[in-house]
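tool_log.txt
---
The assistant was asked to compare two proteins side by side. It first ran the structure predictor on the initial sequence, then on the second. Raw inputs and outputs are pasted verbatim so the downstream comparison step can read them without reformatting.
(1)
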Amino acid sequence: MRAFARPLFGRRARLRWIHLILGGALAMPYVFVGAVVVGPAAGGAHVFSSLALQLASFGVGLPLAALTSLFPLTRPLETAAVRWLCGVDADRLADGPARGRAAKGRTAAWFTLHLGLGGIIAGMSLAVPPFAAVLIVLPLAAGLWDTRLGLPEVFDHAWALALAPVAGAASLLALAGCAAGAGALLARRAPALLGPTPEDRLAAAEARAADLAVRNRLARELHDSVGHALSAVTLQASAARRVLDSDPGFVREALAAIEETTRRTVGELDAVLGVLRDGDAPGTAPAPTLAADLDGLLRRTRASGLKVSATLGTAPESLPPVLSREAYRIVQEGLSNALKHAGEGVTVTLRVEVRDGHLEITLTNPLAAAPGPRSAPRPGGGHGLRGVEDRARLLGGTTRAGPAEGIWRLHVRLPMRTAARPTARPKGPP
């Protein structure tokens, strides 16, 4: 018995019934407009006194409903109603207004179907229960039917009176069955008519790609900024510890470099984390560039005990901001790799110059003769060069890195024209 009643009166069936009644309520304004058209066409007859004229008004109003479904809010509202009342999975439905002719046509078809079936079920829900109640109690009030109810003459017969309650109960079951069937039909057609179109899937894919690009950029910023700072601070502290008694001046310089490195890194970290906090504005730490902080980067790196020889073939101030910022991160990562992997006492050579319309960055250092503390790999490392390659590729440049003739060489070539397209960079921290 429960298995029979659940499809007709279960929670899902009741919610779908409510959805249909909402469709009937939405259809009423269109029916009234249709009545204004049908009434004069029928010679001024009262539309709601005739079932045929009511159906005609309903038929005139449905095309009007299809036209108004083109409003942008129609699909989001219908999708929300279907998700909550029809039990359709959210991932099978499209979000946002309909885009393109195909999506608008499907929305119009759905809206017409919803209002059409909803109007029929809502009308039945208003008419059938009172009629069924009369039939159920008719045997108990048989003496009243001829004077007050005006029932057909068939109920003069005793067998008709005896079957009246059965007919009333059957009418209620038929109403529930029609409502359940119409609700199931709408739930089955909803993904096809309200589901994502190819345009919707493309827009969703673009949104996911943009989000992934932002996440990748945040990961690069964290790796380049925090990773370099931790490597530099570790080596600065190690160098200061080794000469603590013999060279107090170097120790003071190393401690000052540690303080400056950590202060700058905390500012950059706050800028990156500000993007990750919902509702929080990005931090206001200035974007590091070659023009703003190349000298400071070299000074802090040298305070770690690494010798750096830098040659600038162009003024950093002349570089476009986007190019200067990305070049700074590339130089920072190259120096960070040298800090971690170069041997003791080696000199890192940095050269930055403009040649043939490209900014060229070259870092070289002799290969370590034997593994030392700096050349020991750290767990989870090995992403620095990949980040350099990603930055260069986004700017349309190239990267070459590897050992050659006893030296390690990193060469990055960035086209100067990329600075004219700053909007190509995904939205993220500076």
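(2)
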Amino acid sequence: MALRGDWLPALAAFESAARHQNFAHAGEELHLTASAVSHHVRKLESRLGVALFQRHARGVSLTAEGRQLADAASDALTDLDGVLAVLRAGRDDRDRVRVDTLHSLAHVWLIPRLPGLVAAHPQIRLTVDTKTALTRFDDGGPDFAIRHGSGHWPGLTAHHLMDDALFPVAAPTLPGLDRVRSAADVATLPLVSDLGRQGWADWFRAADVHPAALDERHVFSDSTDALEAAAFGFGAALAREKIVTAYLASGRLVRLPGPVVPARWNYHVVYPAHRRLRPAAQMVVDWLLREAGTNPAPL
């Protein structure tokens, strides 16, 4: 049976729904409603004469026939995506790698290491975009992103990059620092906060300290800005281990008493599950994983 052009929208909707195991998530990806995705899938099932999904109260799951078609569709789209990427980028752009990451991680962890990447792979050309919003992998978007989270995102392949941990820091010149001898004493200092999902309340709970109130005087949306504020004497900051190392090494910040609390969310390299990384992007990802596993932060 020849594959006619009017099959393609239904196949695209099916492939996305199969990958997400969810019509609503597929609709978000394709800019359709969940009912439109369902209509495409039912149209495909009618033409093929087989059920591709089992529908139940909790959602949908693939039948054996659906799994067979999903595997073939995924392979075909991956191959097409690779060819289109080459045609779109052109020969001169094959070594250009586009990366999205957090400003805090780029500023104090990634950028200081980039001379090592250039030395190992001088042909690589990077475009680094920093943002707090979740990355959209649209046409012309990044090859991959570095995300801070649980490691589970629908439709994305995630490689664990590195764990993180939290502990308090302050400028050595912060007034009152000479009286800080314990985690309880940290609560007497003015506190600097960021918008991280683990904050001062979590750290004091882990330290078994229960202050009547927390003096969180200054709040910054970015973790690096919070560390900079602490370095200028605004107060004590709750630092993430991976982005504070250079501040400690330079002496701009010092560690305060109290526990090191493992972070509930960590760093991951992510990219669309249906897409193979281009060779240049895979080279950078491999380098990142080696850096995270073997090399301390440079000064």
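---
observation on (2): The chain has three domains: 5-89, 92-162+265-294, 165-262. Residues 295-299 have pLDDT under 50 and may be disordered.
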